[in-house]
Amino acid sequence: MKVDKDVRDRARKVAKKIGVPLSMVVNRQLKQFAKDQRIEFGESLVPNAKTRKILDQALRDIREGRKDKFSPAFTDMRKMDRYLDSLK
Fold it and tell me: What is the pTM of this model?
């Protein structure tokens, strides 16, 4: 199996740091791939500055119990639709 040398070296460094052999990491990933018959690629989602500001404000509102800042809970979809329509 050919592996990019830089990737291998970086992965080996991480594996050593957490105390496992690189072969264990590779075997685990291969077993999962064979079992699931799929592979996922992705990056951690990090909010941009504008979104982070909005999220921080929402968390402050939650901690302060500012229920007026949030929609009510719905058990009926029609009521939810009416509520959302009223916000337009």
Answer: 0.46
